Amino acid sequence: MTADDLPDAPEPAEPGTTRDPRSAAFYGRRKGKKLRAGQEAHLVRDLPQLAIPLDALGARPLAALFPHPVASVRLEIGFGGGEHLVHEAGRHPDIGYIGAEAFVNGIASATSALAARGLSNVRLYGDDVVPLLDRLPDASLERIDLLYPDPWPKRRHWKRRFVRPDNIERFARLLAPGGHFRFATDIEHYAAWTLRLLLTDPRFEWTATRADDWRLPWDGWPGTRYEAKALREGRRPGYYEFRRL
C-alpha cells in the first residue's frame, strides 16, 4: 500500500510549526456514570501521588517523575479504562509510563487498578493532553500509543481527530530517534487517514513489511474493552506502528 492509494487527509504542517492552539481543543465527555465508592476513595487517596502537575515538568529529567530509575518513558494518550496501560506497566517495571485521559471514569478505573497491583512506574494526567505534550522535553519518549481514539466519523468533524498535522508535529518532537508511534483503530477510514499523513511525513517510517504486521495485535497485547465491543460488532481492528527516523 502506498500513500497514493489512500483518501485525502489534512496537509502535514511544515516542520517546526503548529496550528493555532485553539484547534487542539479537547472534544468529548469528561464524566460518565456515577463513580463507585471505592473508585472515589482511590481518587482521593492515590491520585495525588500519581498525578503529573504541569509546572513540575521541565525542571528535572522526565525519568525523575518516577520513584525508581527507569530505562525509558512511554506515553499512552486516551487510555480509556487503563487496561493496556496497567498491563504494560506490569510487564515492564523498568520502564516509566505516562497515561493521559480526560475522562474522569477512566482515570478512576486506572487509579484503582494501579493501587490494587502496587505499580509505581505509572504517572497519570487527567486533562486535555495537548498542554502536556507541549511541556514534555524534546526526544524524551521511547513510544507513544494512541489506541482506538474517537474516529469522529462525520466529515464536518474530521478536524477533531487527534491524528492531524499539529499533533504529528508534536509526536515528531517528543519521540527520540528510533522511537515508535503506535496507533490502533477499527475504523477503516481513520486508518487510511493516518497512513496518508504518516506515509508522506519524511520523519516517520511505517514498520509493516507484510499484511499480518497490521492485521494482528502487537506481542503481549491484552486487548481493551472497546476492542472487544468492536469485534462483537464485526469491525476488524488494525494495528499500525511508525518509527521515528
From TrEMBL:
Substrate binds at K154, D186, T224, R225, Y226, E227. S-adenosyl-L-methionine binds at E76, E101, D128, D150. Its EC number is 2.1.1.33. Residues 1-24 are annotated as: Disordered. The keyword Transferase applies. Pathway: tRNA modification; N(7)-methylguanine-tRNA biosynthesis. Keywords: Methyltransferase, S-adenosyl-L-methionine, Transferase, tRNA processing. PROSITE patterns: SAM_MT_TRMB. It catalyses: guanosine(46) in tRNA + S-adenosyl-L-methionine = N(7)-methylguanosine(46) in tRNA + S-adenosyl-L-homocysteine. Belongs to the class I-like SAM-binding methyltransferase superfamily. TrmB family. Catalyzes the formation of N(7)-methylguanine at position 46 (m7G46) in tRNA. This is tRNA (guanine-N(7)-)-methyltransferase. It comes from Ancylobacter koreensis. The lineage of its organism: Bacteria, Pseudomonadati, Pseudomonadota, Alphaproteobacteria, Hyphomicrobiales.
